[in-house]
């Protein structure tokens, strides 16, 4: 049996699915597929079976409450500054400013999305 990374899927709670889709599309250029799963409205992030990494969904329903507490999901970016500019222009907020870790070779920042969730950005330093 081969070893895999332990996390395979995530769901980001939303109040307004259309507003959240607009935010994530504007900031990251994602395209979503809408589904009803177990009676809940979902907008699925892009997923390629053969690609490395995990995917997930924006999720709306009584079981889903956006929050700035709890698990933080990191989205990869190639250009931290441009992504943070898009976050602010789309109504998001910077919660933890761009921070460079030269020793480990990455840049991180945390933000509040259109729904009130804390998510993070990660950029590898080339």
UniProtKB/TrEMBL annotation:
PROSITE patterns: VOC
SUPFAM superfamilies (UniProt xref): Glyoxalase/Bleomycin resistance protein/Dihydroxybiphenyl dioxygenase
Domain of life assignment: Bacteria
Domain VOC as annotated: residue spans: 6-124
UniProt xrefs under InterPro entries: Anthracycline_SecMetBiosynth, Glyas_Bleomycin-R_OHBP_Dase, Glyas_Fos-R_dOase_dom, VOC_core
PANTHER family documented for this protein: GLYOXALASE-RELATED (PTHR33993), VOC DOMAIN-CONTAINING PROTEIN (PTHR33993:SF2)
Protein name (Swiss-Prot/TrEMBL): VOC family protein
Species the sequence originates in: Sphingobacterium kitahiroshimense
